[in-house]
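Data card: per-record layout.
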Amino acid sequence: MIKKCIALGMLSLVLSGQSSFAASVEMPNQKTSVTVKSNIKSEDSLKPEFVEVIPGAFKSVRKSNSKYPRELSDEEIKLLKAQSQKQSKQRLVDLQKSDMKVEYQIFDPLYNDRDEKALKQITRYNTLETNKQGIGYGNRDKPLRIVSPYMRKNGHGEIKLTNPVNIPSYRTRADKNKAYDKEFKAFLEKNKGKSYDLYTPRTKEEIKESIEAFFKPIELIEYPVNNPKDYKLVSTIPGFPKQIPSFAKNIHLHSNPAFLQGGSYVQLAFGGTPDQLKPYIDEAWTDSKVVISKSDLSNVYVKNYVDSNMEYADTLKTLMPTSIVVVENTTVPMGKYVQNLVDNPIEKSVDEIYELENQVLNEFNKIKIDGESSDAKYKRYIETRKKVEAERDILKPKQMDTVSLGKKEYPIYTESENRKLQKQYLHRFSFNEDSVKLPDDYVIYLFDFGGNWNHPYALGAAVSPEKNYIIYFYQQG
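The structure for this 477-residue chain is written out next.
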């Protein structure tokens, strides 16, 4: 059955993908800081070798050529536990401080971020008791602030280097729904007559275009846009630079689209001197609704609308990306991609879908019902299609279950061969990726935010304490 053929092709491509959440780019001439482990009888001995990937963020590296790290001794495990307990106690002391760090600021003079009534509604906040029960979100006795997407942004300053941030905000959910309904009706009117008509046979060219359009997001997830030379593909995001500045170093770009239940994430990170980055940080300040230290994100809760129920409100930390994508200098393997083209050629799928659709329409058009409603017609079409598919499925030879036979092997190419294949099929390079935790001392400039823990939304920039590194991010869950 054609549907199964396409589904298997999609599944094969999905399973072949890397599981990394984010990606970056080639990092030539990147400075690194390395600490070597020496004595196993002290806490210092537990520090692994590491490199500073971005200012303040470090990545562990292996000490040997062994594929797997060595096992820790009982003494080392004991020291690690002691070190972890020490860090937890210090975190508790930090969280129990009376107020936010000095970086915290909002710009809407009419907004009350200390609304006691809303704060008291929150039950799922950072209490010592819920933390002991294993259901807490931290160790603070009470939440400190409330912010909302409908707050006014700073707005004072000129915007030249970055895209304007003119995102509409809504004070109530009803206002948002009304605006979305209006946009949807306008979309339908604009695309009237352009949609796919089930009852009209498609050409093979149209079928091929629809298949390619369906699989394009999967390709962009498998092989994300993370080469700075391809920044033009993602450069229109609000608040992001219009182009990567010539002075930029240690660049890490990543873009993957939303697909099915998966969210989208876009990032542009680069470094420079404080003087070089100052204009970009100034524009981030102008576009911000909230400026806050990353370490304070868990102390601020989000009220999406004026009439929101705050009982189970989310923190800003819940909506924010916590890791930064770092790009490596090797390309994503093309073996699975090439093998999928061999196993599931698009021309074969096009022919099968073309044949199926025409057979379904021939059966469907044998019956004419005067005055048939659109709902009844659609239901009859679906039933006809299911019947035809079942009949075709019976005639197909039984395929061997390759999944249960073990892991499928794919061609392995050299880096040079891999790059040639990416150029041939993707028309661009896509590099392997890793991620590092965003340091707690970075300052977050939030242009927009909202959603919830299941569908987080955040748009903004993160700046290092020395103001020599900036990370633009867009997350839509």
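Known properties of this structure: The two ends are 33 Å apart (CA to CA). DSSP finds twelve helices and 13 strands in the chain.

See the next section for split statistics.
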